[in-house]
Every structure is written in structure tokens, then in C-alpha cells.
Amino acid sequence: MAEEGDVVGLLRERRGQATLDEVSEGLAIPKYGAGSAYALLQSLRSKNLVDRKGENWVLLTPEASISRETAPGKGVERGELAPGVEQVVRAMAKTLAEAMMGVREPADEWEMATKPMKTEIKKEGGGKA
């Protein structure tokens, strides 16, 4: 019977992504049901090791591996960020804060742009052409 580690290995061999059919055929297991490719992928998804992108299941981190640390009840608790993710979030927050400091209040370009729409144009000359 295939295990989660087998699925991760298969995804690594296929450049980090594979369809459900490819996982099922590659591991010689059924697509759906108990112990199926879908059940294993969903289990890995709940551990944030894989995610679904269209038809493909994508390995989120190339160095992902199944160990005792990723077993239920171990590792990162729900609501906490993994150390690598926390660094990325902090860097993004810092970048956003710096970008917001440089933002100035918009000038009256919008008012100038809409002024021609408010201007009435009067036809002069009542003569015949």
C-alpha cells in the first residue's frame, strides 16, 4: 500500500507536480476511496505540503519530506506560521509599509480629467449651412 512519502517522491520525480491520474498510475493505486491517490493527496494538503493548481497537484516545497515531525499533533500548529513563511510575511509587510510611506495624496488630476465632461458646448450661429 502506498504512503504519503511515496506521493511526495513521485511529485519530486515529476518536477513538483502531477495530475491525480499520474499519481494513481505511478503508484498503482486507485484514484478514489480508502488508501487512494486522492485521499493521500488530501492528507498532504492538510499538512500544507501540496496544493491543487488546476488539474495538477503541486509540491509546495521542493525539500518537503514526510517524517515523524509532520505526523498529526506534531510540528506547526494551525494558526502559527512556519519559520520560513514568517520571514516572507515580515518582508512583505515591511515592503508594503515602505511603499505606503512614499504615497502622496492625489492631486486634482481627476477633477481636471472630468472637467471636459461637465463643460457645456453651445452651438454658435443660428445660420443655415
Q: Could you explain how this protein is built, in words?
A:
It is a single chain. The chain is mainly α. The chain has a domain at 4-76: Arc Repressor Mutant, subunit A, CATH 1.10.10. The protein is 44% helix and 9% strand. The protein has a three-stranded antiparallel β-sheet. β2 (50-53) and β3 (56-59) form a beta hairpin.
Quick one: how many beta strands? 3
Sketch the topology as an H/E string, one letter per element. Answer: HEHHEEHH
Global mean pLDDT: 76
Which oligomerization state do the chains in this entry correspond to?
single chain
Tally the helices.
Answer: 5
**Helix share bin:** 40-55%
Radius of gyration, taken over Cα atoms and rounded to an integer in Å:
28 Å
Biggest β-sheet: strands ordered side by side in the sheet: 1-3-2
Low-confidence stretches: 67-76
What is the annotated CATH architecture of the domain at 4-76? Orthogonal Bundle
How would you describe the shape? elongated
The main sheet comes to: 3 strands, antiparallel
CATH names the topology of the domain at 4-76 as: Arc Repressor Mutant, subunit A
Determine and state the CATH class of the domain at 4-76. Answer: Mainly Alpha
Describe the structure concisely:
The chain has five helices and three strands, in the order αβααββαα. The chain has 129 residues and is mainly alpha-helical. The protein has a domain at 4-76: Arc Repressor Mutant, subunit A, CATH 1.10.10.10.
